[in-house]
Amino acid sequence: MHMRFGRLTWAFLLALAFLSACSDAGKSSQDPSNQGVGAGGANSDGANAHSSQEPEDLPPIDPQAIAFLELALTIKGTDQGAPDVPIKIFWEADGKPSNTDVRTTPDGTRRVQFEHGSRLVGLDINPSARTAPTTYKESALLMGGRTHKIHVELEAGGIVSGIVLDVEGNPVAGATVGAFFTDPISLDNMVSTRVDVFTRSDKDGAFRLGGFPSGPFVLEANWENMMSVWRPGGSMIEAREFRDLEIHMEPGHVVYGQAIDANEEPIADVMVVAGKPNRKTNRRPTQYEEVFMYGPRACLAKSDEAGLFTLPAVPESQGWNIVGRHPRYLPLRKSFGAGQQDVWLEMSEGASLAGRVQDVNGKEISSVQIWMLSADGNPSVFTDKEGNYLFGVGKPKKDVCVLLYKAGYGMSFLGPMDIDVGMQPLDVVLEGGVSVAGKVVDAEGKGMSGVPVRIQGSLPMEGFLAAHMPERFLDRDAVLTGPDGSFQFNELYDSSFNLTVRAPGKPRVAQGGIQRGTTDLVLTVE
Going along 364-508, which residue ranges are E strands? Predict the structure, then answer.
């Protein structure tokens, strides 16, 4: 297991993910001494914007002179400038992307210098204490000696305020309070997160945050070795203000874990999710219909080569559920008790299908999509850059067919087969563009244009769904004849095919037993 860390170290781990999101260069918090905002570049609907070069008496372009970008941000529905708004300007020089961080002045403007010929790409206008975030996209050359002007009307931002309390109901001063512009369940499923706005609680534990766009949000707090165990989350509507919200904290600790197999060998790349039981449904009402109190955020981790993983923030008073998933092993669900600091995940091998895909020259093919077709569904995976693939099935499956396809390399259709524990690798060679082609003619041998031709391979077993045949599954089972009556089906798999011709007002014409590679077919419509 992991080496034990001291109290200060695990308190640091507890806070690291949260605080690192609040410390991006060029960003600051919404605290009483600085009304700036830590921002994550969220989008917001409703902002109006326009741009212009100086409309009258344009000065001559001077390649040796400075180009200017003049920004003017106002609050929608008012004539007020939007002050202290953080903006990230995206631009290019000689085709190389770059960006610049600026803030608006007290009157909501900002004038920025660029070299002649720089190209503006767009703006990320981040939330401020008074305004919601938005983005602005424009491709414009910034010319020396001239000024390019942009005016953006920003939506007023919503406001939340409240207090941070410890487990005994005492105010917590100096806690970092962050807001995420997403819902609690989505936040739980994010491997990496970034706070959208943040501040610190004052000496009385109080906090206030602005700049919320319309839509979901959730609040969290962090202080020393403490974590949020009840956090407000809800939906902001039209710059509303939610007051007197509470964030409840208690001491947290680190849980160390290891994933092993039945032989106690470590398992790498196990995805681990741990959280409070019934966390997705257990919520408490607040004084607002739009806001609820949610339990602590779940922990996500991935085991390393030694099978080790760390859950950095688990409340000391709570027992949690934990789930481990890996394509080669059956999902494992268990729980650990309050205060428990070590957990082992002993996983049982499940049924899986793995292998490598190559071309006829033995070169690995990446990004091949592979489907496992059965009565239970049609999951798919892609090959990696070495051509490898892995299907985690879990319980054994019978009568499965496997379809592989990548444009330019053709199809492969294998099966039926049984997928079981300990299967040998299934390596596949894609042969490329093998076709079936021919011509549809009338009784006089003249080509018939615009006639539908349909192809179907032989069913791999009795009862197999025709909709799962590769040509139909990939929507490549029908074509119209060309002006001379010709038709062609490309990138086919190895099978015996049936062709059907249905010319309007004529008897159906069918021909079977056609092998791929046949290109001289003539189908006559009487």
Answer: 369-373, 380-382, 388-394, 397-406, 410-419, 428-430, 436-442, 452-457, 478-480, 486-489, 496-501
